[in-house]
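Open question from group meeting: does this chain pack into something compact, or does most of it stay loose? Before anyone orders reagents, we agreed to write out a predicted structure and look at it together. Recording both the input and the output here so the notebook holds the full record.
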Amino acid sequence: MKLYGALASPYVARVAMFADLKGIDLPMESPPGGMGSDEYKRINPTGKIPSLMTDGNCIAESEVICEYLERVYPEPPLLPADPLGQAQTRMISRMTDLYVAPHNSPLRSMKDPAHRDQAVVDRQAMEFAHGFSIIAHYMGPGPFAVGDQPTMGDCALAPFIGMLRRVVFPFFTEIPDPTVGDGRLADWWHALEGHPACKLSIDTYDESLESFLKWLAELLAKREQGGG
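Structure tokens returned:
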């Protein structure tokens, strides 16, 4: 069993964190031919990451991969035992994908205030605030997303918050970091940072993201200079 992906992706980081919390040895490789390549699309027609390869079969989509791993490796459980808890952790995962994940993309080219469409920034700020309020509303009793142990919901949300802490919150004062100060998300983030395995996953993802952003900045600088 192996995972095709790159850890700088929050979707790949979700699966990596899930596997780490379960103690699963899950080797990671770059997609054959690269993400989106014809070679890789013969394995996963979407061309996206992550993909889990197991017994010659490809399982796509990070949430589906986590559900599969939960069934194959039930201990330690990362879904609560009760139906309500299971629904809550799945809601956190789903709400992250629907109401947090999409709103970074329009801001990617606007970190420099000189190249900023304030109307777009204000709209995304409202979307983020709405998404964070939805997630906080559906979180169960803490300190983690649902209960006193990390679950699939934590693995979904943590990488996206980690990404936003590096590429959005420091650049846009209109979008405050909900993990700073008081509130349910702040308490949740504090719990993650106090959990050794979660903290290691968060730090590892942050290092990978930092390396990717540095590589991307150097690549764009070369292109601007006509260096190919």
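Observations to bring back to the group:
The first strand starts at residue 2 and ends at 4.
The CA atoms of residues 15 and 66 lie 6 Å apart.
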